[in-house]
Amino acid sequence: MKAVIFDMDGVIFDSEYATYLSWQKIAEREKLPDFDDVYKRCIGVTYEVTKQICLDAYGQDFPYEKFAKEASLIYHERYDGGRLPVKEGARELLSYLKENAIPTAIASSKREERVVIQLKEAGLLSYFDEVVGGDCVKRSKPAPDIFLLAAERLGIAPADCVVIEDSYNGIRAAHAAGMIPVMVPDMLEPNEEMQGLCRAICETLTEVKRKMAEESVF
After folding, report:
1. Tell me: the pLDDT tens digits for 181-197?
2. 7 an active-site residue?
3. How far apart, in Å, are the Cα atoms of 164 and each of 27, 131, 173, 206?
4. How would you classify residue 198: left for phi > 0, otherwise alpha for psi between -120 and 50, otherwise beta?
5. Cβ proximity of 116 and 132 under 8 Å
6. Cβ-contact 96, 120 below 8 angstroms
């Protein structure tokens, strides 16, 4: 292991659940069917892919932009200004990596500008050597592009990069990039496919740090 690349939502921040709660408020009001299943399919993908998933689920006339804007307002009212919860063990793991001079990057499906803002508000931006957003690549996860770009910016070979992800598409992308996938489940439980693709599945980032320190996996 020569570098660690993190997804952000659901890994560094408890933001997948925060986003879910924001959307759920609207989904209940509008009585959107099978919302939980639709939302889970949107985890780890870009805005454009999320929109298409919703259109496929609710019809091509579904006013996605309207609902997305309303959900975004709810989200920002609740969580902006550093109020977004940080996942257990995140600060400790990032401190450990920094102390040991192991390069780190964020590779998030969110726009890079928004990623930087959220990391800065939480006081975490200085822990990362590189930040790569979904708007930096043409193909989103499960394509490996975003992880390959992160490795390129870090100057580390893909095979020497550990990727920490919570989503199926993120793990698929890390595996396709030839990296070392580690899943820390959030809203998606590891299925048989994930167990086959991952080098390790850890309950928390605290467990990831322990295994790195013990060199038992990486």
Report:
1. 999 999 999 999 999 99
2. yes
3. 30, 14, 11, 12
4. beta
5. no
6. no
